[in-house]
Every structure is written in C-alpha cells, then in structure tokens.
Amino acid sequence: MCGIVGYTGEDDITTALGRGLEKLEYRGYDSAGVALAESGGLRVIRSVGRVAKLEEKLRGVVTDARCGIGHTRWATHGSPTEINCHPHLSFGRRFAVVHNGVIENCRKLRELCEDRGISPVSDTDSELIAHLLELFFDGDVISAVRRTAEMLEGSFAVAALHAGEPDVIYAFRRSSPLIIGVSPGRCGVASDGCAAEGDTLLLGDGQYARISPAGARVWENGKRVSPGRISGFAVGSHGTAGYAHYMMKEIAEQPGAAARTIESLSRRRLSGSLAFIGCGSSYNAALSVLPLAEHSARRGASAFTAGEFLLTEKLSGRGRTAVAISQSGETADTVAAAREAAARGWSLLAVANVPRSSLTRVCRRCALTQAGPEISVATTKGFTSQVAALAAMLARGALRDEVRRLPAAIEKALAAEADAETAAELFAPDKAAFFIGRRADVGAALEGALKLREITYIPAIGLAAGELKHGSIALIEEGTPVVLVHTDPALKDKTLLTAATVKARGGRVIAVTHDDEVAAAADLALRIPDVPHLISPAVSVVPMQLLAYHAALRLARDIDKPRNLAKSVTVE
Ligand code: AGP
C-alpha cells in the first residue's frame, strides 16, 4: 500500500519525482503529493486522486529545488483528502515526511504531541512522525531520526526532508521495505524496486540513512554499516508494450512466466505434511493445488487464508511445513502468518515473486516465481506462476512431464479471447454471476470470480459446484451467468447434471473445458487444452481472466487500478 519516492541530483525535480510516482502508483492511488527542498524552505504540493492530477498541478511550478520526496497513497488512517495526503510537515515546517506502514502506538504519540502544544492537522499516523523529528531535533538530524524510530511501534518506511539541508533525504525503516538507488551525481529512495534507479541498496530493518547526491551513508544502532546490495531485483519491464492495459500485457506474458518458473524450480521437491497460506489470489492458488498436494504426498494438506491462520488455535507445526504464498511478498497478513508459523515450530517455505521482499526475509527457504514485475492490481501472471511453481515442486512421476507442458497449454488457452469477449456480454453490474467447479477447479473458479469482482464490481460468487444447491441457487434467475469449470473427466456426469440444473432455472452456462460433451451442454464454451486435472488451474484460469478483462472493458472500468484497491496490502 502506498508508494514512496525520493530524489536528489541534477534532474528536474518535479519530473524525477513524477517519474517515480507513476511507477509506484499501482501501490495506491487515492491521493499523491511531493515535498520540495527549496532554498526558501520546504514546499508541499498535494492533490486528491491519481498521480496524473498531481502532475498537472506540478506542471507550472517554478522551483529551485534539486531534492524532494513524493508519495502515492492508499488511505488507512483518515480518508483520502488533501489534508491527509502525504508529505506531512512538522509543526515548525522544518521536516517533511512520507510514510508507508502503520504506526500502532499513534494514539499515544498524538497525546505526546498534544501535551507539547502541537495540534496535528490530519487524521494520519504519519504526520506524527514529522512532529517527532522536529521535537527531537537538537541540531543533529541523524540523532532525531534515531530517537523518532525508537518511539514508533508498528511498521514504517519513512523518507524525510530537513529544511536546513536542501540536497539531503533521510530514510529509515522497520518491517516496510525501502530501497536506495545510487548513480554518479544523483541518488534516490523508493519503497519498491521498480522505482529505484541506479545501483540498488536495501536499507535493512532498523537502519537509517542520509542520502545526498554524493551517495548514501547508513547507520544501525548508532554505528555506520554497509547496506546490502540488491542483485537480481526485478527492475524494469515497465510500460504496457503496446497493450491497452498492464493487465492484458501480463495475461499475454503468462506462458513465458510459467516456463521460467517451472524451469527454475524443476529440481525442487515439496513433500510432507503441508499447510498453504495466502491471501486473495494467492489463497486461491493454494486451493488450486490442494488436490495435487494430497495426491502426491498421500496425506492431507490444508489451506488457510493468512488472516485466519493467525486466529487458529496454536496449531503445532512440528514436522510440518507451512508454505506462505505471496506475489508481492509484502502482504502484511501473510508475512505475519509466516512469522507466527515459525514461532509455532513450522518449517517455512515462501513462494514469492519479489526477491528480497519481507516474506522472503522471514522464510529461510524460498521458491521464487519468475513472473517479473506485475503492475496491474488484478494479478494474472502472478497467480499462474504460483500454481506452476507449486505444481513443479509437488508433481511426481508422469505428472512432472505434464507440468513442463503447462506453458504451451497456457499459450493455447489464450486463444479463447474472442469467445471470452462474446461471453462478457452476458455479464452486467446489477446481475449476480457464479463461478463454480469441483476439486482443483474450485480454486480456479474462485480466482475467476475474484478477477471479475475486482475489476468490474459485478457481484461474482465463487463456489464449489456441489454447494450451489445448498442456498446460492436461490440467486439464479433468467439470464444469470454461471461459469462452470470442468477439467476432471471422472466428474463429467456431475458437471453435466450441474449444467442442466442451472439451465432449468434460466441460468446461462459458460463452460471452461476441454470436453466436447460439456461444451455442447453449455450455452457458450471457453475451450482450453486437455491438461491433467490436478495441474489444470494454471490453464483454466486464463479464459476467465480474459472474460473479466473484456467485461471490465465493456463497462469502461479502470482496469489496472480498480476502485478501493492497491497492489499489495501491507496493513493487517
Ligand atoms: C488479486 O488480483 C488481488 N489483487 C489480491 O487478492 C492479491 O492476490 C492479494 O492481496 C495477495 O497479494 P500477494 O500475492 O501479493 O500476497
């Protein structure tokens, strides 16, 4: 949630900050702002809405600043108004601050400020950080930074300007990532590798830095340290490469992403007693591979949403492995669940797309997916790479060869686009839609429903097909679209019965299948190649992604940045 950027150097400052904010906008986009270190003092320019609106505001700005910080926000403390928007100034305007994360003791800190006669103007926890910096400032900013960081409980990545040093950015962090970019004569800071330029250094947990055009100096507990250099960070691949949206570009990138992932994990094995943990699509990926895990390990496996895992009775993990799945590696619930699992004695494996993310630092063992940067808020290649990664590590015997064929099958599934576009006409915002399937198809169906919900705002319900008749069928009326995923030949009779039951009530069946008979029983078929049921979700999900995309396009939705959402949910 939220993106931080900072720049100091010779480039035009508003252009440099705008460039970074555009790249980070997918992290949060309800308001944005910058602070510029001008010779006459700190100047803050903010606006509600997208980065483009801020850039419009910045266009006519005349400034002598060569250093600044910027922020794009996804509101947690306080609504998305200009007052709550970052950067926040301290009471004496000597410090400006941008912040990612959540300050858990903000009520106590607010009282502390009020006791000193400071009246915070916003509803945010972030503003308090600026006030603390000024309160603790006695001529040495680094010691004010250190004292401020010590006062904060919770997670934070902070970039700050001090009015007395117009070419310096101060940065400090705990639990939220912050990356320093160093190039000759210019330096920067960013909360995400995609916006870091030059050589990238990861500011460690509890470290703080002074960044100037000459380079970065980093401290920890009062001592100078060298920050870790990041290699293999997923930088680049920005821009939509001619596609109308990142989502479509990322859908098209899926065969390559799956191929790289499978190749890189071809020698890894995942076995034993397993519990998969994730949120949203990553949880759906867990559900998608549960039958495969049970089949391969010949014992039960379980899947938890990370939030629920945290609430379970203290399940002992002795002899068991918790597989924490996250595209971003920054989802707060998943990171917290992984920490909790470690504390309960589970052995841990992270399946993440972003190396050097919070999750990969918590888990000793990692299996990285190779999807490359994913920008669209709705995940596509992130999901299929997760399923491909887990399938590569779980499959045994002949299934392993089938896993290697997944990228080609995903490529073929992309051919369903024209039919998906036709099927999209059956969906409307005031009409519920269903996505159903059995066994491994449940995970795929839930993911299909989530895709449609998040980018079209159509109430889409994902269910195990057998559950339909236990209540939800009451919603089916003339024209209700029901996407029926069928990939397991052994379940064909059940699938045909479900299709008939839906049609008898006026529902329109859209089958996602390789099977001719099931396709013929449906009103419309989205054909996929025949792949073994246990690994099929990586393929069957593709037509549903295309369906969601075209339905959103018809409704003129903001496809890459749906309302109320952010790419990674870094608050619990
Ligand atoms: C998927 O399209 C969503 N944007 C969301 O459910 C996402 O999968 C979830 O927030 C988990 O993210 P992660 O994989 O980065 O942990």
From TrEMBL:
Domain of life from the UniProt record: Bacteria
UniProt signal peptide: none
This protein's record includes keyword Nucleus: no
GO cellular component entries: cytosol
Domain Glutamine amidotransferase type-2: 2-236
Keyword tags: Aminotransferase, Glutamine amidotransferase, Repeat, Transferase
CDD domains in the record: GFAT (cd00714), SIS_GlmS_GlmD_1 (cd05008), SIS_GlmS_GlmD_2 (cd05009)
Keyword field contains Cell division: no
GO molecular function, one term: carbohydrate derivative binding
Reactions performed catalytically: D-fructose 6-phosphate + L-glutamine = D-glucosamine 6-phosphate + L-glutamate
InterPro entries reported in the protein's UniProt record: GATase_2_dom, GFAT, GFAT_N, GlmS/AgaS_SIS, GlmS/FrlB_SIS, Ntn_hydrolases_N, SIS_dom, SIS_dom_sf
EC number: 2.6.1.16
Pfam families the record matches: GATase_6, SIS
UniProt GO BP: fructose 6-phosphate metabolic process; protein N-linked glycosylation; UDP-N-acetylglucosamine metabolic process
Top-level EC class: transferase
Coiled-coil residue spans: none
Residue ranges constituting the SIS domain according to the UniProt record: 261-403, 423-562
Name of this protein: Glutamine--fructose-6-phosphate aminotransferase [isomerizing]
Organism in which the protein naturally occurs: Candidatus Protoclostridium stercorigallinarum
Gene it is expressed from: glmS
